[in-house]
């Protein structure tokens, strides 16, 4: 830590937060990584290719991200974290709102290609398998909160399997976009939510 | 055609069907391609790597499959084609049976890794995009037949959206295996089918 700060200023200089030049080169590198991911897939997101496209030096890239998986993660995660809603307590509106956020991610080129990449790499690379679990946990967290609140309030069955409910709500949307290859709107999200509620909350 | 048969026998030899040695080398190459796919992903399935592992010459491999995508397709397709059931006319039993065939494919290393590979490559490579559409059409064909028969017989609503019904039935299983990363049994298939039928065929 002291070695690294000594490289950027004289000893004793008070901390000033992140170097703005470092922040700019990080942003330029992530933008280049996102473009390469969308155009050519994860295999094209290498230190050499990102350096060539962004103009950021390879040494700087290796300092930010020793492995390409970390670079890919940072390129994707910022999109996914920004997408969640804040639940209101209205079960149907909350499910439609949160799953419509997933629908938008599935139609955003960066997060769509990021999901395709982690699905593939997770099958053969433990680093990506961990990354996929992180994205799955982060991506389904608010869905779980909505379902668990409704279960506690008696709006859903007390013995509802929340994992399976997430599969039944998010699965059709992911399948329709990544397997069937279709684009779709909020009407499909509403139909999936209404089908789920017709089976699980018929008294509503 | 005549040039190629001239290489294997004297002119005028009657046709004898495929050369058994060619069939053996094709099978050895596909087995090696399946191993590489499962161990390292699609990017490892190259003519050089398949030749090294199978002992089949590179010239022979290029004659069978000018492109690696064709080699990968043949390595995966034989698994998927063998999996379908023959519907009996009992709606619930047919849906559970056909979706349980999908569940088994999702737990077979070759078809599981094949699905992961085409989901990723389809986003950036038109050859794989076509392959994914072929696999999607072949994989959902029997589900559609079951749903359309039941709709015609009045067991499902006349205005049922069959595409969306496939998403709601197959999507949760694909999501649970490829995204959530879970292994599961026929009980999950039954729960997904029963949830769908509770929403769409409540009078049954």
UniProtKB/TrEMBL annotation, chains A, B:
Residues 46-65 bind DNA. Residues 23-83 form the HTH tetR-type domain. Gene3D superfamilies: Homeodomain-like, Tetracycline Repressor, domain 2. Residues 1-22 are annotated as: Disordered. Keywords: DNA-binding, Transcription, Transcription regulation. It comes from the Bacteria. Residues 1-10 have a biased composition (Low complexity). One of its GO terms (molecular function) is transcription cis-regulatory region binding. SUPFAM superfamilies: Homeodomain-like, Tetracyclin repressor-like, C-terminal domain. PROSITE patterns: HTH_TETR_2. This is TetR family transcriptional regulator. It comes from Actinacidiphila bryophytorum.
């Amino acid at each position: 830590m002291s070695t690294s700060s000594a490289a950027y200023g004289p000893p004793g200089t008070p901390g000033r937060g992140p170097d703005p030049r470092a922040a700019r080169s990080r942003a330029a590198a992530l933008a280049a990584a996102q473009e390469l991911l969308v155009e050519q897939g994860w295999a094209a997101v290498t230190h050499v290719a990102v350096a060539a496209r962004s103009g950021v030096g390879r040494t700087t890239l290796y300092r930010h991200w020793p492995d390409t998986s970390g670079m890919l993660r940072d390129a994707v995660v910022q999109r996914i974290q920004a997408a969640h809603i804040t639940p209101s307590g209205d079960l149907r509106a909350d499910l439609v709102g949160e799953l419509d956020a997933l629908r938008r991610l599935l139609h955003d080129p960066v997060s769509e290609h990021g999901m395709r990449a982690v699905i593939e790499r997770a099958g053969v690379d433990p680093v990506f398998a961990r990354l996929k679990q992180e994205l799955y946990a982060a991506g389904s967290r608010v869905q779980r909160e909505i379902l668990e609140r409704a279960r506690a309030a008696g709006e859903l069955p007390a013995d509802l399997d929340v994992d399976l409910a997430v599969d039944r709500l998010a699965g059709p949307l992911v399948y329709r976009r990544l397997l069937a290859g279709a684009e779709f709107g909020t009407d499909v999200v509403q139909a999936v939510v209404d089908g789920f509620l017709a089976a699980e909350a018929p008294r509503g």
